[in-house]
Write a structure and sequence with these properties.
The protein is of the alpha+beta class and 173 residues long. It contains two helices and nine strands.
């Protein structure tokens, strides 16, 4: 009786491992920076701009090894949905061979990277005029000053009228 139980458990484990290995997601590279590699032969990729982020898919939670030239080795873990991302800290200009490996699968391509230098700002001094313009800016303030004086006089006039209407003439006026 025990023999039958253990053989059933062994059979179940073998089926599980077989299905898991058959259902494994292929290792793919989906993006190099802003470039999509889906459906494109990416054996040689020309890229200009900032250091690109490599993105792809692998089996869920799988370890993905990225080797750039022979100097940089990095390992990233794929997410539970199988997506992985890697941003190299430094990438030399020119051709770099990149090999991405996960499980028994690997991808290899050459990245021709031409970094664009950051723009440098050169300050330009603003010239100071030798003399002020012939027309001043008083024209812009004149309507505001005149409007303020009119509001003041109108307020004083209305105050006197209100006091007169109430029959309480102020002795100060």
């Amino acid at each position: 009786m025990n023999r039958i139980k253990w053989s059933g458990v062994l059979f179940g484990v073998c089926v599980f491992l077989f299905i898991k290995s058959v259902m494994a997601i292929d290792l793919t590279l989906t993006r190099i920076g802003v470039l999509s590699t889906i459906g494109v032969d990416y054996s040689i990729v020309d890229y200009t701009g900032t250091i690109p982020t490599l993105e792809g898919t692998a089996s869920p939670s799988a370890q993905v090894l990225i080797r750039i030239k022979t100097s940089t080795d990095a390992t990233v873990a794929a997410s539970p949905s199988g997506v992985w991302r890697f941003s190299p800290g430094v990438l030399d200009s020119g051709a770099s061979s990149i090999v991405i490996t996960s499980g028994g699968q690997s991808l290899a391509f050459v990245l021709n990277f031409n970094a664009t230098p950051a723009a440098t700002i050169t300050p330009t001094p603003t010239p100071i005029p030798d003399e002020l313009p012939a027309t001043g800016v008083w024209e812009y303030y004149l309507p505001g000053v005149v409007g303020g004086i009119l509001v003041l006089l109108l307020g004083k006039f209305i105050r006197e009228k209100m006091i007169a209407w109430e029959g309480k003439k102020d002795s100060r006026s």
